[in-house]
Write a structure and sequence with these properties.
single chain, Arc Repressor Mutant, subunit A
Length: about 210
């Protein structure tokens, strides 16, 4: 796979006709398409930082589409998945959707339907990446706090006043005010709402 951060439509299917359909869809949407004939070939160069979406056939020689879907989920991959199948039953559809697939398309599918689902998948991926970026930024800000400043932050989040925090930590009110001012500066929060938003976005909320 190319080390390219441009959103890409990845296709894992041993059906050449599907790969051609995806290539046409990618061209219409303005996104590159990378096709693989097996799950093993896809996994050889896959990197979780890649953006875009994955179109995945349910039944393939070797690792099946459902097995690949489960592996990617276990590895923490975030690519939205569109499952496709020429003979999907209810059990397969339920498992695919339960494991996070956006949809399951039955072959043959029309190009317009495929493009609509690809648009949804690419939009979901962009939204997920933006959310992860916001979380990473919040985590970075929160990591600047000392344990004592984090303690004050958690008490502020619990609705305690400066006076109540001072009593609980056996500090003077002025000392609490100083810690509060420092942590506000460190996380670059101008208001209490800003502060709570950063804390909420951080993956360590409530720690």
């Amino acid at each position: 796979m190319t080390v390219d951060h441009q959103p890409t439509i990845f296709v894992v299917d041993d059906d050449a006709a599907v790969s051609r359909a995806l290539a046409s869809a990618g061209k219409l949407l303005g996104y590159p398409v990378q096709a693989f004939e097996s799950a093993a070939a896809f996994l050889t160069g896959y990197d979780s930082t890649y953006r875009g979406c994955l179109v995945l056939d349910v039944k393939m020689p070797g690792m099946t589409g459902l097995e690949l879907q489960r592996k990617l989920a276990a590895d923490g991959a975030h690519l939205p998945i569109i499952m496709i199948s020429g003979h999907a039953d209810v059990r397969i559809a339920v498992e695919a959707m339960t494991n996070g697939a956006i949809t399951l398309l039955e072959k043959p599918f029309c190009l317009d339907e495929l493009i609509a689902h690809l648009r949804d998948a690419l939009r979901i991926d962009a939204a997920n990446r933006a959310a992860l970026a916001r979380q990473a930024e919040a985590d970075d800000r929160l990591a600047r706090l000392t344990p004592k400043e984090r303690e004050v932050l958690d008490l502020i989040a619990a609705g305690r006043t400066n006076k109540e925090i001072a009593a609980e930590l056996q500090l003077g009110v002025r000392a609490v005010e100083d810690r509060r001012a420092r942590l506000m500066r460190k996380v670059r929060a101008r208001t209490l709402a800003d502060l709570m938003r950063v804390r909420s976005l951080g993956s360590g909320e409530g720690s």
